[in-house]
Each structure stands twice: as structure tokens, then as C-alpha cells.
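WARN no homologs supplied; continuing
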Amino acid sequence: MAEPKSTPVAITVDHLSQTYPVPFLRLKKLLGRKFKPPVEALRSVSFEIREGEIFGLIGPNGAGKTTLTKIIATLIQPTAGAVSVKGHDTVTDDQRVRRNVGLAGAEERSFYWRLTAEQNLLFFARLYGLGNRTARRRLAELFELLDLQEVARRRFAELSTGNKQRLAVARAMLAEPPVLLLDEPTRSLDPIAAMRMRSTIKSLSQTNNSTIFLTSHNLPEVEELCDRVAIISKGEIRALDTPQNLRAMHTAEERVAIRFTALSALEAEQVINKSYGSYSFVVEAGSWSDETLVRFTRALNDELLDRILRVLQEAGAVVRSVETERATLLDVLESYEGAS
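OK structure emitted
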């Protein structure tokens, strides 16, 4: 659920825009070379993230997710607008912002490939100002939390893509920052490791009150984790709400499939049409020889499903299963992308 309005704000994004200029524009004009127009990565993006909230950002490739993440992390300065983290501006007070933020990127290139996983984290712990004893204690906690004990003494170059991703998350958590920026945190992880990562993210929000801003292409994961989700397309925020409300805004209907036996498709079609001829139903043979399947769409929480079940059972049908399917975040995302 969305955080109550009384909860303090951790991140404020205020009319943020980012345009990447054409490289060597004057030289290209001088030489008469063709060039593409400047890339407008973000257009007047505004939202707030509250303390302890898990906030998701979804959108297609090139929509502006990584650019926005890097601006919050102070790696890029915006063309216009402003971002503040815990009350500190990312441009004028960038050092304090960095003390409050931990970043785990989707394509991490800043680790030292010849050093072991442990040596890498010790090096970054020193940069964070952690003493030797504190750093080693923190490493032990993170290696256990993220199940990295077996690779602690292996060189970074030898690690799998999934282990590199987990090490990036461990580094983001080293100094226990109140805000975590996780760019596709379960990318390249196997199903079990991804499940553990999601559990860790939930725990950080619930027990440590960490504020977590994450991007992901795994929409079921976003729906499971996030209190609120923003949909970004072509640099603009198209919608922002809880996953449940986003689905409900997309459609007020759900698809229903009823599987049953002891009644043929022809008999089922006759009894249903007799009572509900004005509705559109699909009646067909099921996957088993004696099974019949009825499909239809209904308004959420209306009484049509109960009525159809009653009609089928009164006609002698033995109901085996009832499956309902509502709009997913993918449906919502596709609808905004198609409309843009």
C-alpha cells in the first residue's frame, strides 16, 4: 500500500529534464556532416518517494530509467529541474547526497577484476571511511545475507554475471545508507537467488526503514515488491500509483475460465444462452476428452460468475476449476506505450 502522507519524504524529483547534446556539433556542422538531433531523455519528471517506501520505475528500454537513477545518485547533472535526497540537492550538495545513497547498477564496470570479491568490498569500505574491524564485520554480514560466502575469495573476473550483480548490491549496502538505488537488482540471477534478493529488499524496507528506488523489466517482481510504481515512456511519467490501482485504472474487467465435466459443450452452450443470451461466451472442449471450458469477461466483483456457476450446476455440470485473470502491469505498460 502507499505510504501515508505524514511519512517524511526521502527523495523529491521536481520538474526534472535531461537532454544529451549532439557530440562535436560545431565540428560536424563545419564539415557538413549529418547528425541526429539532441536526445531528450527526461521531460519535466516530478514525483516524491517517502521514507521506507519501495518505489518502482518501469518502462521500455530507452525510456529514461537509468538516466533518472544516475541523476539521483549524482552521477549526472540534470539539464533542468532539481532532485533532493533527504533534503540535500544532488547538484549543490552532492557530497551529502552520496553519504545517504547506495547505488547498484545493472551493468557494473567499476569493480577491479584482478581483486577478489572480498578485496573489492574492503577497498570500497575504505572509501566509505569504515575502519578495518567495522569493514570486516560488515562484509561478513553482507556475504551471509546475499549468499556470497563461497565466492568471497574468488577474483571478480571469475564470477558469474549473477554473482557480480549480487556483489554490486552488497557494495551499495556497505555503509548502510538510508536510500538504495537498485537498477534491475535481480538481473541475471537464477530463480532461487532472485527470490532471496526480493526477500532481502522487503526486509530492508520493513525492518531497517530503508527507502528503495528500483527499476526492473520483471513486472511480476515489481508488483510483488513495490508500494507504488511509476510508468515512464519516452522520458515522461505516464502514470504513478499502487500496482493494484494501476491495474484497476487500466480495465474494470476480468477474464474468467470455468472447467467442468458431465456436461457437453453443446449442452452448456444451450443452457447458458437460454439464461444469458445477451452476453458473449466461448464454449469449447477442454484439454481432456470429457472436459468442457467456458470463457467470458465480466465486470470486477459483479454477480455474473456466481450465476453462471449456478446455471451449470443445475444442468448437471461438475465444476473442476474456476480461473480469473485481471490486467497485469504488462497490460498497463503496453497501453501507455501504445498511446504515446
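The chain has two domains: 9-249, 253-327.
OK
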